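Case 439 in the screening queue. Each case pairs one protein sequence with one candidate compound; here the compound is flavin-adenine dinucleotide. For every case the pipeline is the same: read the inputs, emit a complex structure as tokens, and attach any notable structural observations.

Predict complex for case 439.
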Amino acid sequence: MPDLPHSVVIVGGGAGGLELAARLGRKFGPSHVVLIDKAESHIWKPSLHEVAAGTLDIHREDLSYFMLARESGFTFIQGEMHALDRNAREVLLLSVAGSTGLEIFPARRVGYDTLVLAIGSRTNFFGTPGAREHAITLDSTEQAERFRQRLLNLMVRRIPAGQHGDDAGGAEPPGLDIAIVGAGATGVELAAELLEARAGLAYYGLHGHGCEMRITLIEGADRILSALPPKLSFAAQSLLESRGVEVLTGLRIAGVSADHLSDQDGRRYPTDLCVWAAGIEAPAMLGELGLETNRVNQLVVDAQLRTADPRIYAFGDCAQAPWIGQNSNLPARAQVAHQQAAFLYDAMSARIRGAPAPSRGFAFRDYGSLVSIGHNRGVGNLMGVLSGKSWFVEGLVARLMYMSLHLTHHLAVLGFGRTAALALGRLLLKRGTPRVKLH
Ligand SMILES: Cc1cc2nc3c(=O)[nH]c(=O)nc-3n(C[C@H](O)[C@H](O)[C@H](O)COP(=O)(O)OP(=O)(O)OC[C@H]3O[C@@H](n4cnc5c(N)ncnc54)[C@H](O)[C@@H]3O)c2cc1C
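Case 439 output:
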């Protein structure tokens, strides 16, 4: 009997998993490379704050996994992994229902020779009462869209009758209070993007008329972007404050209700819309695989990104991997997932060929961090690769560099020609579409 091809099954087609599947697919083809994702289309997760603000149209940005599979030469299976049968070497998937509720794929089992888990992370509410029920998160396109539609509805509802489009005066409608809990990159970028959305909504007559959108960014640490150098935090804070965002630091939210937040001293903060962006955890299902996990459910992997099961690897946000040379673990960032995908490409290629995997460990190259503060501004620190020194960058240069990260992801997934065509197409489309998605 001929040998069956060695199959590498990657679960999670996000910032890291899709890049790995596309690169392996182009080299080895669909009989060797299988990608499983619970969604039918892909969006680069760091764009979700733009979807939430309505400045990016999800229907123009997302890419169908079936199309990507066809073009990059991997097999795509849609389904949500809910368990693993390690003895049979099978991933167990839930059935998939379409938008009408009709089952489109039954529950299935997918066999693997090597399994790579890249299922990302989700919001961590840290057990805060009411947060899960009343706050919106930015974990998926559905949640980002939910926020956008709620924001739009609340804005429209506040326009007094007869004033849709003209400033007729009269009784002042109540303002709209938006609270963002957590001022890491996600919270800061969302606050800045909402400022862009506010300007776009005003342009179309959906903001103003006495209804002010008030944005409050709340952080428990003593500065925003606390994982980044202080200079960056202060630059970002002063940019946000100069554009009207209220920034509250050293404030811990102890409860979330439908119309207000409360802190640990019982003070109340009125809110019409609350976004929770205060931390992450990996899906709880990872704790049930019989493999070591940490307190936020991340699979513990070694420097080669292997779990204790030699057939199972994990990377990206769902894994706790050592940061070689830093005596700590790698941060949950798109840059880490991107570089780990390139590292695993070599390891998976060796396994498919039946050769020994490279013995070197994954060494993260920190090129610095960039945070977008709107469409024309950003702040960041860039690390000199040779000198190890860091440079502070801001303004349009930082924003353009930030955009290049997204481009790098598209290049890894689509290749040069298609990325260029897509970028040009989107640029042209922008001229004929509203600045903010209005429907
Ligand atoms: C609004 C926002 C802004 C951000 N900005 C930045 C930034 O500026 N810079 C930066 O470095 N990082 C940023 N991040 C973090 C960055 O998005 C993540 O670190 C990165 O996406 C992690 O990549 P990943 O491949 O591990 O997971 P993800 O990109 O989250 O992909 C996980 C994939 O797994 C799929 N999946 C999940 N569970 C299952 C399951 N059970 N079965 C099948 N499929 C499953 C999901 O559908 C998804 O496609 C931001 C995050 C957010 C939310």
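Case 439 observations:
- The chain has three domains: 8-121+282-363, 131-276, 369-431.
- The radius of gyration is 23 Å.
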